[in-house]
């Protein structure tokens, strides 16, 4: 991704491996400051996944791959590492996919660094292909809506939902993006908007509750990412996605999901079987450590919701755009 620094524009990734350490952008510090953290123990990487220092399904997967790399380099018990890393977050399928990929590679004798780097690069290549297939959906002058962050920060580089937008911008198209703030952690406002500023893409942040309002005035398409896609096409994404999909159906707005094949989980039959992560209620009741909810009130804080396949126009993958009834084409 391109970032603007005092020394000029720089191209960086959300997570990478350098000098025996996993290095990543400290996403919780954005957009106020661009900071980096590094870890030389796989348990620290697992904690960074858990506390959302790194987030977004493909970036979580790449971080998990690098964590397995560290475990192997330090002679740790790989079975224990698998268990520890997989326990970091329950919903994103890429986490489990990456750990299983690395475990298979490592017990097969692959070089740990080479295997992890291959995995991370594969995510970048897949996102580039997603951009190529999704770009024709965006007409010149289009109004697009997205939710949460599914850009380079979430995917090592390029993005899933933002990949077609980057490709359309590179093709010379002009368009406008409505960016949901995405409560309670504001990934849309703090991360997606930050990326669009870096890329020079015109946009505006909107409250989550304003999505249907702007659809009623004219939105050409919606593109979101996904954290897990079930065998029937139901998918989990950041809480608030379902609201958009229902409103899009009402206003006849095409609703697309951009995700690599690694996000498909064919062992999960329907969205009802997806485990939804429940996070600390303080993310809802507090801001900056100060309580804003009345004493005596509790809060519910699901990190994701499940959107059913009948609300999806298509899945933009590295293998093309698939209708929900076509997704088994990617089953190897």
Brief summary of the model shown:
Helix 4 runs antiparallel to helix 5. This protein is α/β, with parallel strands linked by helices and 332 residues long.
Could you list some keywords that capture this structure?
7-stranded mixed β-sheet, Rossmann fold, 332 residues, alpha/beta, 11 helices, globular, Four Helix Bundle (Hemerythrin (Met), subunit A)
Could you walk me through the main structural features you see in this protein, from its secondary elements to its overall organization?
The model has no long low-confidence stretch (mean pLDDT 95). The chain has helices at 42-50, 57-73, 78-86, 93-107, 112-134, 152-155, 163-170, 187-199, 211-218, 241-251, 282-285; strands spanning 2-5, 8-11, 15-18, 21-25, 36-39, 143-146, 176-180, 203-206, 221-224, 228-230, 235-238, 255-258, 264-265, 286-287, 290-291, 304-307, 314-317, 320-322. It has a seven-stranded mixed β-sheet, sandwiched between helices. It has a four-stranded mixed β-sheet with strand order 13-10-11-16, with helices on one face. A three-stranded antiparallel β-sheet has the order 3-4-5. The chain has eleven helices and 18 strands. Helix 9 runs parallel beside helix 10 (241-251). It has two domains: 2-126, translation initiation factor eif-2b, domain 1 (Four Helix Bundle (Hemerythrin (Met), subunit A), Up-down Bundle); 136-330, Translation initiation factor eif-2b, domain 2 (Rossmann fold). The chain is globular, with a radius of gyration of 19 Å. With 332 residues, the chain is α/β, with parallel strands linked by helices. The protein starts with a strand and ends in a 10-residue tail after the last strand.
């Amino acid at each position: 991704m391109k970032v603007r620094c005092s020394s000029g524009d720089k191209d960086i990734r959300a997570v990478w491996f350098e000098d025996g350490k996993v290095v990543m952008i400290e996403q919780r510090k954005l957009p106020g400051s661009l900071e980096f953290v590094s870890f030389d123990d796989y348990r620290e990487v697992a904690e960074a996944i858990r506390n959302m220092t790194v987030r977004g399904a493909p970036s979580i997967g790449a971080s998990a791959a690098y964590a397995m790399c560290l475990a192997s380099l330090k002679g740790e018990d790989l079975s224990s590492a698998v268990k520890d890393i997989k326990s970091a977050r329950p919903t994103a399928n890429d986490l489990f996919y990456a750990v299983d990929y690395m475990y298979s590679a490592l017990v097969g004798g692959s070089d740990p660094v080479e295997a992890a780097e291959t995995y991370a690069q594969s995510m970048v290549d897949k996102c580039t292909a997603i951009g190529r297939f999704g770009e024709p959906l965006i007409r010149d002058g289009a109004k697009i809506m997205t939710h949460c962050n599914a850009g380079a920060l979430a995917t090592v580089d390029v993005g899933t939902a933002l990949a077609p937008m980057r490709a359309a911008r590179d093709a010379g198209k002009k368009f406008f993006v409505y960016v949901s703030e995405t409560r309670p952690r504001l990934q849309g406002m703090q991360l997606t908007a930050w990326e669009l500023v870096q890329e020079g893409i015109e946009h505006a942040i909107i409250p989550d509750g304003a999505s249907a309002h702007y659809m009623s005035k004219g939105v050409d398409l919606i593109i979101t990412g996904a954290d897990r896609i079930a065998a029937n096409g139901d998918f989990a994404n950041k809480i608030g996605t379902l609201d958009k999909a229902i409103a899009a159906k009402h206003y006849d707005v095409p609703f697309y999901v951009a995700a690599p094949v690694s996000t498909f989980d064919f062992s999960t039959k329907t969205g009802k079987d997806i485990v939804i992560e429940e996070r600390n209620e303080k993310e809802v009741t507090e801001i900056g450590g100060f309580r804003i909810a009345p004493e005596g009130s509790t809060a519910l804080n699901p990190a994701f919701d499940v959107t059913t396949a009948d609300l999806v126009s298509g899945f933009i993958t590295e293998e093309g755009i698939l209708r929900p009834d076509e997704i088994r084409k990617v089953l190897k």
